[in-house]
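Co-fold these.
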Amino acid sequence: MEKLLELNNITKIFSGHGLLRSKHTGHRAVNNVSFYIEKGSVFGLVGESGCGKTTLARSIMMLDPPSSGEILFEGTNLAGLSSKKLLPYRLRMQIVFQDPHSALNPKMSIYNSMKEGLVNINYPVHKIKEKIEALLDLVGITPSHMNRFPHEFSGGQKQRIVIARALSLEPEVLILDEPVSSLDVSIQAQIINLLMDLKEQLKLTYLFISHDLNLVAYLSDRIGVMYKGRIIELGNTESIMANPRHPYTLKLFSSAPGHMKIEQETEQENSPKPPAGYSFEPVAESEESNFTLVSISNSHMVGCYKNIGDNPEKRRLV
Amino acid sequence: MELAVKNLNLSFVQGNREGHALRGINLTVKEGEIHALVGESGSGKSVTSTAIMGLLPSPPAKINSGEIILDGNDILSLNEKERRTIRGQKIAMVFQEPSKYLNPTLKIGEQITEVLELHLGMDKETAETRALEILDMVGLGTGKRILKSYPHELSGGMKQRAMIAIAISCNPSFLIADEPTTALDVTLQLQILKLILNLRERLSMGILSISHDLRVVHDISDRVSVIYAGKIVETAPKTELFSQPFHPYSNLLLQSIPDADKRGSRLVTIPGKVPDAENIPSGCAFHPRCPYAMDVCRENDPEMKPCGEKHFAACHLTDNRN
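Predicted complex below.
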């Protein structure tokens, strides 16, 4: 399948503020991340809070442009474009945030909130109302409610409206940043089903970000596990679920609620082995920069550090 | 020893508006048992726990009827001073967001010794020795470092451990854990759940664990009660609830959880949304969302009836079954 979106060595460094700020001492929120998303597929990005998932999403949208690296959208590098040239690409990618309550302006009616994007792209004025009605209908909100304000809707309804608004510009890629984690259990399933239906109907491509491994495994075609700014395991969902290789992935699996094994402490036995010549933790400080993703099958990669060994000659060569 | 909530009816009154938050809650927690109360937001689970603790401001909260029985005595009939001796000493509580409930201006040590001095009349030195023991018990190490730390110096998981330490400091017979792991990452969540299980063994406390996440409940509880719109609709031993849920709501909730095994198939959904406390539907509160709703469901609110060994459900379908 065609690669719609490809990331090459994305790094995002937040440098400190003030007089002494320096690019070198900054915080590496995203560290050398590379992966691609195929057209019409769902890529699931999973990791705990603070691992850099949201920063990565904002970088892809060029809301927080990456410090280095390439974001290729159908082969065009977005990171090198001027804001004017970026605009047509921005229309093709939209983002849905976690909290629908803060994503909608409380002082604007739903109609006005949804109109903004369409007005900005000079959508024919006489067609706007019709378009908004069609979008609301698509996500299961009664179109006649469009003059209501956000507080008149429940959390699940608000999330539907936010999704409708994201779809108003007819994007090809939707970045979903924890779209259901603030919703009730019974509502979560409704939104997930809606997202999967929309994907089929509108031939969308999703980057689905979540901390919930069960959820990501349910709906993604491929998964990237993120830890401390790095992708530490990447591959097909089936392959990762059947054979998690990185100790952190394994830890996420065994901590997922509903899978707790209290009596069995057999983690040592099952502890995964890194590929030969590599280790999961840097052995020496100088190996810190040797982090790579190593293929263990044609659809599965695991992140580890290349061992240089203690031979000083060898070290000089590297 | 047993903590029992009997037919508790509670509403929030504001002007001429009245929201029926709890509509006849019956619940028992036995010594050494973990009883989980599961429900969605707005179903009344936190109101139940704060009502047991006597922490609801009145007004607007109004207890219309019911009893909360601890050790044979109805604690609702006690005055505030007597209530205070129970709170912390007999029943303690752990909240969802530790950063909100720890005092940011006091060191962790002071927050633990305060409880010990107040409830058990310890002097400062004994209290400090005891505080060290408790911190060790909750896995915060044996050194004095934590005692001398302020809440902001601790991570989220450590703060939750510190709050558990405060809660168990007086050896309470019952602990109410109100979503203790919801604000934490999955790996930390597991550690805290294991800690709670471990403390139950060591202190043989009865625990009322409140959660919206059925998967968390599956990991730690002995018995599960499902609450919907201020009423418990099903209560059963854990394994039975997960293998043979009787009430349509419990059943649908279980089926709507996404899991890798369900890949490629659509998730089961519950149409509509949780009713708010001011507009509870007539009859069975779940009937507008229930796929099996019958005429009788619109008119009569079903009572809890047995549908298995130690398994009760409030659903008119129990009648058909018997």
